Amino acid sequence: MTGVTKESLAEKTRIYIDAHPSIKDCVAKGLINYSSLARVIMKDLDVENEEAVVIACRRYASKLSVTTDHEMRILKILRDSRLEMRTKTCIVTAKNDWSVLHKMDNLFKDLWNENSIMQCVQSASAVTIIADKMLKERIIDTVGKFNIIKVRENLVEIAVKSPEGIVDTSGVIAYLITNLSDAGINLEETVSCHTDTIFIVSESDMIDAYTVLTKCIQSAEKIAGQS
Questions:
Q1: Which of 32, 121, 182, 208 could be cross-linked to 128 through a Cys-Cys bond (beta carbons 3.0 to 4.6 Å apart)?
Q2: Is residue 179 domain-resident?
Q3: How many of the other CB atoms lie within 10 Å of CB of 36?
Q4: Range of the domain at 159
């Protein structure tokens, strides 16, 4: 690609690195050969100036190295976090209609008196209700079958309960999701409520998901504990 200015090439290099999390992580920690990375970028972006790409990589690396302190803040949050797991969970997805919300309001009041837990998330197109499997029929009857979009069962809820500091620390949820994704675990739903981060997975992924999250916390305890 001839005629590419140094500024635009530097920007393209940054965008390329940002689009590849594994490469970005290695660049931030200084664990990569810039010449080898430059050749890969040159091939993928169809550019010819290896020296310019190497310089762009090194300059971006100096900026990314600042994130190591931020990563430590994330690990300190996870170091003080704990896991809770609840099986036999279901998800009921209903139409986002005022009548559905009105009916759910009465159900929430009943469940509050019964000390039952239910999460409700509203989007522009639907209302997602996460609850104990025992409440499934009750929710469907309350909402009305004609308002139901989808019902998912055989799910497990894993909650990461963190200290108050998570509210002001960006990247904690992304860190956990990345680790779950790298392990090939599909998330049915993810809900963040104040200091609780809730992951909903299928029963078949329960053990693997719990193991991944446990290792995240254990690693944080070792690394952050040494700082």
A1: 121
A2: yes
A3: 10
A4: 78-225
